[in-house]
Amino acid sequence: MANADFLNEINKRRTFAIISHPDAGKTTLTEKLLLFGGAIQVAGSVKGRKASRHATSDWMEMEQERGISITTSVMQFEHNEKLLNLLDTPGHEDFSEDTYRTLTAVDSALMVIDCAKGVEARTIKLMEVCRLRDTPIISFINKLDREGRDPLELIDEVESVLKIQCAPMTWPIGMGKRFKGVYHIYKDEVHVFSPTHGGKIATGEIFKGLDNPGLKELMGHDFEDFFEELELVREASTPFDIDAYLAGKQTPVFFGSAVNNFGVGELLDAFAEYAPAPQPRQAVEREVLPEEDKFSGFVFKVQANMDPAHRDRIAFMRICSGEYSQGMKINHVRIKKNIQVGNAITFQADSRKNVEQAFAGDIIGLHNHGTIQVGDTFTQGEALKFGGIPYFAPELFRKAVLKDPLRMKALQKGLTQLTEEGATQLFKPLRNNDLILGAVGVLQFEVTAQRLKSEYNVECVYDNAPITTARWVSCDDPKKFEEFKKKAHDSLAEDGGGYLVYLAKSRVNLSLTQERWPEITFSATREL
Ligand code: G4P
């Protein structure tokens, strides 16, 4: 490919994820974005997948749920000559680890906030992850067709709780029953709300300028209120600054109603215009630029395949530099092996298909028969290692107990391999031979037990483990660290990567230990 075409391919890519608290409207917004991008024809096709999201116990259902989420894991669509890769994550609470890792594979994010609820717990957590890499974020305050909180108050809350400056791009006129539309501050246009947009794209009426007599007539008294508020907003808020946005210090804010397909167009236009193209990636050895001609990428997620007949897994790889073409040979850096990739997959909203070509910024799916782990790097020969995929301290712990003691080796192997996927973590206490599993959500334990049975022929049950939380420990002073290790020996364990972890019986126990050992760093995340 000619150099200019190659650069153009990379520069037109926008790889992003949507972050939000459950129920804020992520799925609905995803669907509307796809609708705008022409990737789906009618609304409803994405939403449908949530029907089984509450399935908990039935293995097939879980399998299906995970499978379905694969097909919508990466959605590619075009808008205003940009090629957008939207990386989705299952809505299920238990898969939040996936969400965190997915954030390491994007260049920017969209944040959805419910106007009645404001900043919620999950959003705070996801924002912390975004902050690790200063990921640029565009915000969408959703559900303006319902009564919500005062928009100025919401902006204040985003600024103070999420510690990011807000730059309102649009401002709502009324709310709930009195919701009349949004005013685009920079285009000086009012987009009139019509709740009938429904499942297809429709552009509501647009008034240019605020001194439009027709507009005043249409809005009545609400317009006066809006006018006053707008003055306040103009005085109190900071203007949009693209550099501050790209540095992750400021978030442009849009208002709308995803379910009514309202305000989404403005959001998407701004996204295509301002969101960053594929960014350089830091490897341990050096920074890798997307436009380098040699291919490189890293795996941020491994997931079981939907097809139960094959039981292979899909490894999701973010391409960091260069170009993938069908049949090329790439080097699996960790195991120092070349592999030929003949059948990588890309994912569209409603189908999976083989890709012939993909560029930096794209995600491709590799068939994985157990040799690929989350965090693995692939290159065209150079020994690189991309870092930055965090492990999070689990909040739930179980001790794995074998039904047949003779199957211990198989259990160890199964657990080691399954926990390599990253959804559950394995801890081996220093003081005994227990196998402790940690997860963020309870469903993961069930999935692991089911998979141990079907894939490794090992039956295991769980005992409660008297552990509340875990912290990775480290210390600059080797002597002090040795002293700590001796004293805290009975509470220490090794994780799957051989790192030392403090398993705390309770929060109180953790804070007491932290107070007693100020020289020791207790970390709630571990970078891969
Ligand atoms: P999530 O993926 O973030 O969990 O949220 P999702 O899109 O599923 O939306 C959660 C609920 O909020 C859904 O209602 C959805 O229809 C509704 N919703 C999304 N956007 C808007 C909006 O702009 N205005 C209003 N009023 N509601 C909105 P549900 O009752 O849970 O599901 P459904 O039966 O409507 O599908």
From TrEMBL:
GTP binds at residues 20-27, 88-92, 142-145. InterPro entries: EF-G-like_DII (IPR053905), EFG_III/V (IPR035647), G_TR_CS (IPR031157), P-loop_NTPase (IPR027417), PrfC (IPR004548), RF3_C (IPR032090), RF3_dom_3_sf (IPR038467), RF3_GTP-bd (IPR041732). Residues 11-279 form the Tr-type G domain. PROSITE patterns: G_TR_1, G_TR_2. It comes from the Bacteria. One of its GO terms (biological process) is regulation of translational termination. Pfam families: EF-G_D2, GTP_EFTU, RF3_C. GO terms for cellular component: cytosol. It is found in: Cytoplasm. Keywords: Cytoplasm, GTP-binding, Nucleotide-binding, Protein biosynthesis. GO terms for molecular function: GTP binding; GTPase activity; guanosine tetraphosphate binding; translation release factor activity, codon nonspecific; translation release factor activity, codon specific. Increases the formation of ribosomal termination complexes and stimulates activities of RF-1 and RF-2. It binds guanine nucleotides and has strong preference for UGA stop codons. It may interact directly with the ribosome. The stimulation of RF-1 and RF-2 is significantly reduced by GTP and GDP, but not by GMP. HAMAP family: Rel_fac_3 (MF_00072). Belongs to the TRAFAC class translation factor GTPase superfamily. Classic translation factor GTPase family. PrfC subfamily. This is Peptide chain release factor 3. It comes from Cycloclasticus zancles 78-ME. The gene is prfC.
